[in-house]
C-alpha cells in the first residue's frame, strides 16, 4: 500500500510497479524478482529501485536482503528496505537483519517498535547526498533565500516536508533517558512473548498457527468449528469482534492463504506473560460464546 502510494507520488505511475510473488512463508521469491527485472529489460524498461520488506505488516516476514541486494546491485537499482514495522528489532536480534547494511535507504517507524507516540517516522540514507541531490533544485532556491552558514543544508532540503514538528525530540529524549539497553531489552521481551504465544497456540488443539513467527506478529485461527471450514472465516471474524468487545486484549486481523486470521502483534514494552496467556484464553472464551449461540434457523 505505501509503496504503491510512493510510486504514484513520484509520478512513476502505478502501472510501473511490479509486485513480486512471495513463498509459503511470505518472503519475496528472489528468482521471481530477477525474472521480473529481466522481462522488463527485454522490453526496454529500466528498473530503478527494488523495495524489500524487513518485517511485513501481517506476519513479520523478512525478505532475504543479502540476495535481493545482490540482484539490485547487479542491475544498478536502488535498494529501499521498508523496515517500518520490523527493522528496529535489529537492535535486539541483529543476526536476523544481516543484509540491512546493503540498503540505500531504510524506513523505520519509531512510533511502532521504539514505543514512541504517533507520529515519528524515520528515513535513513546510506548516502545523504543522494537525498540532497534529489531535492537539489528546491535546495538551491532555498539556499539563495536563507543559506545556513553553519550546516550548509537544512533538513527541509532533504525531504518532502517544509514546516514540520520536531518529531525527533521525543525520540532523542527517551533514548537518552532510558538508554539503548532498555530498548534492546524491551524488544527482546516482545520477541520472546511472541514466541511464547506461538507455543501456546501450537499446544491448543482448537487454534492453528497460520505463519512462521519471525518477529512479534502472530497470526492464527480458531479451527474447532462445527461443520468445519466453510464457516471458518465468519466464525473467526465473529471471534475477533467479541475478543475486542470483551476489552481484555486487542487483536487485529490478516488474510493469509485466502483465510481470515486473528493477528496479535506485540510491540508494547508493558506486555506481560499474563497478557500473552490471556490472548489464548480470551479467544477460547469468545469462541465459546460464538459457537454456543443458537444459530439462525435452527
Ligand atoms: C506502518 C507501516 C507502513 C506505514 O508507515 P506509517 O509511518 O505508519 O505511515 C509502511 N510499511 C510497513 C511495513 C509498515 O509496517
How would you explain this protein's 3D organization?
With 298 residues, the chain is an alpha/beta fold. The protein has two domains: 2-126, Aspartate Aminotransferase, domain 2 (3-Layer(aba) Sandwich); 180-292, Aspartate Aminotransferase, domain 1, CATH 3.90.1150. Helix content is 41%, strand content 13%. It is built from ten helices and eight strands. It has a four-stranded mixed beta sheet. A four-stranded antiparallel beta sheet has the order 5-6-8-7. The mean pLDDT is 91.
Entry keywords:
298 residues, Aspartate Aminotransferase, domain 2, Aspartate Aminotransferase, domain 1, four-stranded antiparallel beta sheet, 10 helices, 8 strands, 13% strand, binds pyridoxal-5'-phosphate
Set down the secondary structure blueprint:
Elements (H helix, E strand, L loop, with lengths): L1 H8 L20 H13 L6 E5 L11 H10 L3 E6 L21 E4 L1 H4 L8 E4 L2 H7 L1 H11 L21 H11 L1 H23 L4 E3 L7 E6 L9 H15 L5 E5 L2 E7 L7 H20 L6
Helix pairs in contact: 8-10, 9-10
The chain binds pyridoxal-5'-phosphate.
Pyridoxal-5'-phosphate binds next to loops.
